[in-house]
Amino acid sequence: MTLLAVERMKLFTTRSPWWCMIVALALTVGFGALYAATLPAEFTFDVAATQSGGQLGMMVIMVLAALAVTTEYRFGTIKATFQAAPNRTAVMLAKSTVVTALAFVVGEIAAFAAWGVSYLISGNEVLALDTSQEWVQLTGLGLVYAGAALYALAVGMLVRQSAGAISLVLVWALLVESLVQLLPRVGNDLYDWMPFAAATRFLMQSGGAETSMSSQLPEPPIGPWASLVYFLAIGVVLLVLGIVTVRQRDA
C-alpha cells in the first residue's frame, strides 16, 4: 500500500498527467459531440458512433503512461526511488497498477460523457442503452484504455526516453498496424492479429450484433471477448519484459 500511495502522489503532483487526462476527455467527448451534431440524418447514429473519439483519447492516455515511467529516468528520480525501495519489481508493479487504474477510470468517464453529450445533442432514441452490447461498448472503453496504458508503460521501461517511447507507441498504433494490410497475400491475415485492431473489434462487435461501424470491419478470426483477452495478454507480456529489463539494467 505504501508503494501504491507513493506512486499515486508522484503521478498527481506533476502537471503532465492532469493535462493528458483533460485532453483525453476533451478529444473523446468532443469528437463524439461533433459527430452527433454533424452526421446527416440519412446515416444511422448509434452508441458505437458516440465513441468515435475514443481512439484519439487512447493515444493521449498512452502518452500519459509512457511519461509516468520515462520522466523519472529523465530527471534521475528513479535512482532515489530504487534506493528507498530496492525491490524494483514491486516499484514497477505499483506504478503500473496506479497508471492502469487511472486509465480505466478516465476511459469510463470519457465513454459515458461522450454518450451523454451525444444523446443530448441528437435526441436520438437509438442511443438508449437497451442491450448488453451497448453497455459493453461504453464500459469496454475503460478496459481498452487500461490495456493501452500497459503497452505504453512497457515501452517506457524498455526505451526510457520520453520522445522515443511516445513515438514508438503512437507510430505503432496509428500507422504500423494499418500499413500491415498493404503487404501482399498475408497483409489482411496479419492485421487480424494486430493488438490494437483486436481492441477495436472488441468495442465495435461486442455483444454479437452488428453495428454501423462494425459492419465495415472484416470478419475477425476470434470473438470480441477473446479479442480483448488477446489484447490485454500481449500488454501483460510486454510489461513483464519491461520489468525484467528494469531489474537487469542500471538505474
UniProtKB/TrEMBL annotation:
Keywords: Membrane, Transmembrane, Transmembrane helix. The keyword Transmembrane helix applies. The chain crosses the membrane at residues 18-36, 56-75, 96-115, 135-158, 165-184, 222-246. The keyword Transmembrane helix applies. This is ABC-2 type transport system permease protein. It comes from Actinopolyspora xinjiangensis. The lineage of its organism: Bacteria, Bacillati, Actinomycetota, Actinomycetes, Actinopolysporales.
